[in-house]
Amino acid sequence: MADETSERDIPAKPRRLTDPKFRALVFQILASITVAAFLFFIVRNTLHNMELRGISTGFGFLDRVSGFGILQSLIEYDESSTYGRTFLVGLLNTLLVSALGVFFATLIGFVMGVLRLSSNWLINKLATVYIETFRNIPLLLQIFFWYFAIGFNLPSPRQSITVGESLFLNNRGLYLPAPVFEDGFMATGLAIVGSIIAVIFLARWARKRFEATGQLFHTVYASLAILIGVPTLVYVATGMPMHLDYPTLQGFNFKGGLTVIPELFALTLALSIYTGAFIAETVRSGIQSVSHGQTEAASALGLRPSWTLRLVVIPQAMRVIIPPLTSQYLNLTKNSSLAAAIGYPDLVAVFAGTTLNQTGQAVEVIAITMSVYLVLSLVISVFMNWYNAKMALRER
Amino acid sequence: MSHNFVPLPDQPPPTASVGAIGWLRRNLFSSIGNTLLTLLSIYVLAVSLPPVINWAFIDADWVGVSRDACTSGGACWVFVSARFETFMYGFFPAEETWRINLIYGSLFLCMAPLFFDKFPYKVQLGAFVIFVFPIFGFILMFGGVFGLTPVETSQWGGMTLTLLLASVGCVAALPLGILLALGRQATNMPAVKSMCVLFIEFWRGVPLITVLFMSSVMLPLFLPEGVSFDKLLRALIGITLFQSAYMAEVVRGGLQAIPKGQYEAADALGLSYWKKMGLIVLPQAMKIVIPGIVNTFIALFKDTTLVIIVGLLEILGMVQNALNDPNWLGYSTEGYVFTAFMFWIFCFSMSRYSQALERKLHTGHKR
């Protein structure tokens, strides 16, 4: 500090209080002290209050027996399982409904976003009505609507709505045929994995050859042939070791097959329709962001319309679409916590709800729940940054 | 040999390219694919619309006081009209609802001039609405002074509570959001910057529902012994913290859009940090971010429905509550459609307004 000031032509004794660096330092120290004092105050109060209420701190409660059942679990779970297991079940249910929601929302969003730009007036208006309606109604209300107003008024199992006698929808849920794998299905599974790897290598090789020689290889057809052909061959050769288990009506309810509980059904429906409307807007603005000059230049170069779309429009539109799309996925995952309102056993319902009520470990439970969502958003934003860096324009 | 050239009258354009037929050909039947799509959507509409219209309007029952009036098999709007007071005012005493109406009326009078470009005292009026009006509103809602009967917060509810949560959350979050955004931009103070980043990213990363859980079960633990907050206030604290993080990101967008020359010019004039921000940067930045603020307000407005989880009954909560009334079992569709309609009107008009603002305020800040 002293050297710097002597070099410059300012008074020998710098006026400390007006030196921006010094002021910044003082201000930061003050701010840090305030925050630390505030945190200390909270922690002390919390410890004191918990002591008063006789709640022990720590994560030991995770090993205790929970004693309550859960409507739907992807892993083995019963009343004698621990709270730690409860947490896992809730987490997996959250991930399940998020994955389903992301899949269907993307499907709905992309279709509706493209239809929204259709030159067909009727289609265009229908897509607009869909987007503007569902974007502007609270998600919780939509969940309630599908669950209480529609789900409860579906017919009873005997009068199920059915598609081809294999898919049944009634007020107990959605019943689907379930695939049952027998011995020897392993080979088909391996064939599927193997053909996926083969297709990836094929695509790389085709691209390299195209860039080196300009010769085209019909990757799409070849990949489809490999992806469908090889597993089918293996499947038939090993004697078709899989059959579908159809749900059948026995007494008052369906037996067998795959059951989607009404809570999951309503939640997935509401999440995909709500987020789909937002994704549709993202897709529309992404496609519109590619200037008309680009498509004109492509046709001037003699590219076919399908190539124009694949090589010129989509790559540029995706660059605009992907960042908001990931944040929509993130929103969907966070919104899946509304499951608690209709009793779908997600992380918030079984952990921040039931477990918290039973154990009273408010601080630990809420901290764990929040950090799960924080980690999820961190992972997604890391991925987003990586993708952005990969897709960013490389200007030459 | 001179004769005047008299042109023949113009031939009418082919009927297939102008007028209604031309429009139909261009917009609905321009190609085989389009024709198929058009026919398909007409079929879908023909199948789905008439039953809905029948249910909602033609077969619906509109007048009456109890469910006995609902006999025609369509929608029973009697449910909504009979419960309308609760949906709007919650459990506010009926003889005191004039206070809520007074708040709405005076707020409308204060806000109306803000929508006219020519009105000269916009900033002052805006400041009045944001800083002074809440006090006036609070006194009217809470009562207890000037001879007004006190009304407990547990009696607040319905649409009033929805609007209250959203607007208080937004107004309280604004100053906090501005401070956080300034802190996040303060590159010369790494400690302050990282604290702001942590705060913002934390609240943006967790769902509102866990925030509400936290404010209802953890906040009482944070406070010294004997101090306790009202349920509504706890929810408001959670919502404000949550909203301030989103607000900060919106404001940051505005700060980044201001050209660097503006900052440098302010420095060159020798303005202090707060003068630079308050007189040069923020006035310009806030103008740009108004549409963004309206958008976060819309999001918050929809999210207020979540307070049902912590036992506060805003409009959706009131509808849920009414649906549990044994006299009105089975009218959930009507209740939800009505609520959806209310929300839709508010959100749709606000989003249109924010789009219009965006176009109007787009005055050359984009580079």
Overview of this protein structure:
The complex is a heterodimer of chains A (396) and B (367). Helices cover 65% and strands 7% of the residues of chain A. Chain A is an alpha+beta fold. In chain A, the strands form 3 sheets. Chain A has a 4-stranded antiparallel sheet. Chain A has a two-stranded antiparallel ribbon with strand order 4-5. Chain A has a two-stranded antiparallel sheet with strand order 6-7. In chain A, helix 4 packs across helix 8 and helix 6 runs antiparallel to helix 7 (219-237). The two termini of chain A are 43 Å apart. The model of chain A is unreliable at 1-6 (pLDDT under 50). Chain B has 367 residues and is an all-alpha fold. In chain B, helix 7 (158-185) crosses helix 11, helix 7 packs antiparallel against helix 13 and helix 11 (231-257) packs across helix 13 (273-303). In chain B, 32% of the residues are buried. The radius of gyration of chain B is 28 Å and the shape is globular. The chains are: A alpha+beta (396), B mainly alpha (367). At the A-B interface, helix 2, helix 4, helix 5, helix 11 and helix 12 of A face helix 2, helix 8, helix 9, helix 10 and helix 13 of B.
Order of adjacent strands in the largest pleated sheet of chain A: 1-2-3-8
Topology as H/E string of chain A?
A: HHHHHEEEEHHEEEEHHHHH
Indicate the percent of residues in helices of chain B: 55-70%
Q: Main β-sheet of chain A: number of strands, strand sense, barrel status?
A: 4 strands, antiparallel
- Bin the strand percentage of chain B: under 5%
Count helical runs of chain B.
15
- Report the count of strand segments of chain B: 0
* Anisotropy-based shape of chain B: globular
Domain ABC transmembrane type-1 (chain B): 159-349
Organism (chain B): Denitromonas iodatirespirans
Membrane topology (chain B): Multi-pass membrane protein
Protein name (chain B): Amino acid ABC transporter permease
